[in-house]
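INFO batch 0412 | record 1 of 1 | parsing
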Amino acid sequence: MMNEAATISSKLRDGFINETDEFAFLLEEVPRVMRKAFEDSIARFGLTRTQWRTLAYLIKAEGMTQTELANCLELERATIGLTIDYLEKLEFVERRHAEGDRRVWRIFLLPKAIDIIPQLRKEANAVYEIMFKGISNADIAKMRSTMGKMTHNLRDI
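INFO prediction complete | emitting tokens
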């Protein structure tokens, strides 16, 4: 009986994982490894990558609502709420009621966050430098174009 199971498993295994699967797995592996490297590099600030990304969006558009931040980060509103709670504890951000609607909170950077932004930028640049080591700008441009097309294709599903 055990020999039959091994034969069936072998038949299923042959050709099941193809080169396209391996490439898709690699596409998933790059962001996973990048997140880990980035989280390690900013751990001394007491931040996760999600918290860093929240600060980054606020740098671009300070005063965003929690809902707007959740949409940008592709997070649930409850999750972004917890992220903002933590950033408030660190005294990096503050919530302010939106003018005209006290149910809506807008998020603003505090001086403590503004002070570390240059250091966070250096950490991100260092991770990106390692990640792109040995890869030409032309290759990066081609990857960017290709990944943009892949994203567009998948959004059409």
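INFO post-check: Residues 19-42 form the longest helix (24 residues).
INFO record closed
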